[in-house]
Amino acid sequence: ETGVTQTPRHLVMGMTNKKSLKCEQHLGHNAMYWYKQSAKKPLELMFVYSLEERVENNSVPSRFSPECPNSSHLFLHLHTLQPEDSALYLCASSQAGTAGGSYGYTFGSGTRLTVV
Amino acid sequence: AQTVTQSQPEMSVQEAETVTLSCTYDTSENNYYLFWYKQPPSRQMILVIRQEAYKQQNATENRFSVNFQKAAKSFSLKISDSQLGDTAMYFCAFMSWSGNQFYFGTGTSLTVIP
Q: What is the per-residue pLDDT across B64-94, written as a single tens digit (0 to 9) for each?
């Protein structure tokens, strides 16, 4: 049990579908992140929520839409995705704004997304 | 912008032997943090070891240790007495002192051979 739980573990969706990824953390952290992991590329930061406010989106396409209803939950809403969006999507959390952030992030096990 | 480079896409080591994974980074900052993360087939990214740049002493965690060369901007990971469970992707990461954003390398796939 890592403290950061992601569902679903696997997702296959068509380009016209709408789906959502869910992340939940039980660590009392106040910042949550979405990362995209593609083969042979560095992890790409997609979205940051610190104290429930989005602070960065890194020019991610609008077909990805994040939602953070509270400090423990984070969603990534997906619609009209492209095959190149197929990747592992990782959620992470940290204690932002204090030295706790310098201890790194706690990651979930990711959602393996395949767009067909 | 900070960059992190891992020049070894794949490595292998015999069980019980020692292996060193390389990492270099580029930054103009004087204080920062460096990390090594392990990602086994289960996909969860696990923190292996952490180094604070203002500390000269190399960090160690059981069989894992680092060789931190600040002037050379090098941060290698040494795994001693390699075990089968060490088989995983290993990512080097940089965090600035002032921010919470990570910069990751592309990873090194390590296979421990029985």
A: 999 999 999 999 999 999 999 999 999 999 9
